[in-house]
Input
Amino acid sequence: MATALPLPHHRHAAARTQRSTGAVTTTARLVARLLARGTLVLAVSLAAYVLLEVLSFRAAYSGGTSTAQLALFDTPAIRMLQGPPHGIGTAGGFTAWDGGWFMAATVAVWALLVSTRLLRGEEDVDRVAALLAGPLPARTLATVQLAVLAAGGAVVAAAVTATLGGLGEGWTGGALFGLTIGGFAVLWAGVGAVCAQAFDNRRRALSAAVGVFGAAYLLRLVANSSTDREGLRVLTPWGWLDAVEPYAAQRLAPVLGLWAAGAVLGAVAVALRGRRDTGGAFLTRPDRRPARLRGLGSPAAFAWREGRGVLVAWALGLAVWTTFLGGMLGTMLDFFTADDAYRGAVEAMGLGAMLTADGFVAVMSVILGLALALFAAWRVGAARAEEADGRLESLLVRGVTRRRWLGGQLLVVLAGTVGLAALAGVATWFGARLSGADLALDASLGSALNQLPVAVLFVGLATLCLGGVPRLTLTLPASLAAAGYVVELVGPALDWPGWVLDLSPFHHLALVPLEAFAAAPALWLVGLGLLATLAGVLLLERRDVTSA
Output
């Protein structure tokens, strides 16, 4: 009988290399599939935001700008929120300064969420073991995940660059700004990745990463509050963002610093991943504490217990933003009074209501409405995550009905949304008081609470998606909310047909407090939201529980 001869050593090595390369390629494709939809939505949204900023500037300053006009932007309140003005004599420079901070915050939050999900959340639900069972070491898996994340940052950078360059705002400045936004995403992805190695579950990792993000932003506020403190900018990535000045000084070093810092943090995360077991962590809570049984008596109580940390984070973020918004109220009204060109452009865009304190708050509350809609969709998406991660099944086998479980989730979502709206109204009033602007508390509260019908509508839409197309529970409502906001913001200025404007739920709300509360459209929006919620509950009861 013939005996099989062993393969030569180099053939064994070649086979192992081939298997390893195939595993890396397959894993990269899998991660890319997981991130593709969210990355595309983010890139398109930022490109649309850039387009809106450029068109708005051109409408306001079609005849050019003057030094006196631009000097009105350089106030302490505006510098703290948006950074020192730079290159704002052109539409591209104004976009980079006026919208850069918001776009940077958006990509940073996206990066933190995705990086902690990939590098810790997947371990929490035991989906990593199957990947590591083959010829794929843990370090290689982390490297692939971070590489795909960096590619996502590059896609975002390309979208921003192409939009600015295509609009004729200069490819050099556009590329610097796009790379700055992309590098900001990569840096915070690195922060999230390191926190994912340090802490023993995604919630703690994300909380720690958000804490670092908040501390960095607060340091930037302090640094921009006075010329004596400008030296502190070098200590925060937000300061590097301010230092680029893509349409003025055009500094490349801060851009390279963002990408390099992201690469270093990613390398640290990969090294830490190789030094711990799957499911392990470097910072864990001791098991000596007594069991916490509070909040386990009902689905609503458990939903509150699980989501209160996220609610607190949203509350802090909205409180800071709306306080600064109120603090800028007096400055912006003075700016409208002093700048005839900008005032005329605002009126031509159909936003003449912003020329008064009540009108300014009413118009700006649409942004709050968008934030509330996104929060509501996000929290319903968290309910979907419970199902996808397999935690829902352990409740259903204990006699908890699907209707009761989902009802508890939605109750907490709606209560949290109302609380956020009320907090934003009070914070706006408080900021206005600090700036000396004439804004009444009831007017500020009314403006914020006026956005709740839109939030209820998107709760219903997210619930309908949860029941019918669970994979779209978060992405479809969030995309439609962003689209509705864009329609409401630019539609009147561009003379879009009335039927197009009516597609935006924000368009049906009255400009409270400038106008009286419109009960009929508000009731219609709430009614549609409740009907969609009921349909979603019924669909959930009739479909199989699915995972992933």
Notes: Residues 381 and 545 are 15 Å apart (CA to CA).
